[in-house]
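2024-03-11 09:14:02 INFO worker-7 job=invfold-0412 stage=load source=structure_tokens
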């Protein structure tokens, strides 16, 4: 990845600040970014909430970044063009990196449908701390749930370029963790993510 050339009047002081390791020692935990990807309706947000609650109960400091929350706040000026979707993920990754550097376990829940767009996030956050979690739920199940009514609108042509309908989803190959939700409960899915994460974040 090419090093960015900053304007002459920009002088970052990252190297003069307390480092991620200092924050991790204070919090007694290792920081990572769990990047949950999957179709709309796959269960990403529900699993993220469950993992957040379980980690909190075990004494870990966490932060969830969720698609709709981000779109209603820091990214509320972005649409759904290819350029805006790329910028959406870029900003999210930069925010996740800040939480990572603060020693937190950051749980990101975004469709982020292409390998390229997730690679962008990985490049910003850093390979070592970016853990891609594929919430693998078949399209037909996601469409049956349709909790936000988005698939119905996409099928009716009211939403264009909707992932899974008229825009592709590229599955991770391979992810750090794959959760196949079709034949298990939310509780089981949360437990799978938790069991994967705990050895990594335990100081």
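2024-03-11 09:14:09 INFO worker-7 stage=emit residues=203
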């Amino acid at each position: 990845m090419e090093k960015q050339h900053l304007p002459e009047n920009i002088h970052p002081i990252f190297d003069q600040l307390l480092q991620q390791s200092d924050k991790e020692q204070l919090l007694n935990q290792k920081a990572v970014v769990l990047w949950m990807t999957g179709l709309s309706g796959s269960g990403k947000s529900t699993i993220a909430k469950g993992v957040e609650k379980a980690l909190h109960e075990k004494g870990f400091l966490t932060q969830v970044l969720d698609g709709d929350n981000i779109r209603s706040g820091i990214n509320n000026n972005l649409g759904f063009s290819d350029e805006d979707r790329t910028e959406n993920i870029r900003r999210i990754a930069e925010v996740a990196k800040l939480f990572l550097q603060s020693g937190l376990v950051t749980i990101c829940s975004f469709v982020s449908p292409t390998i390229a767009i997730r690679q962008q996030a990985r490049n910003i956050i850093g390979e070592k701390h970016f853990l891609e979690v594929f919430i693998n739920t078949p399209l037909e199940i996601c469409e049956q749930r349709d909790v936000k009514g988005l698939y119905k609108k996409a099928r009716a042509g009211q939403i264009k370029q909707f992932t899974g309908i008229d825009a592709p989803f590229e599955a991770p190959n391979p992810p750090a963790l794959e959760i196949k939700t079709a034949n298990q409960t939310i509780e089981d899915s949360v437990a799978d993510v938790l069991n994967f994460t705990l050895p990594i974040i335990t100081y």
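2024-03-11 09:14:09 INFO worker-7 stage=report msg="The CA atoms of residues 58 and 197 lie 12 Å apart."
2024-03-11 09:14:10 INFO worker-7 job finished
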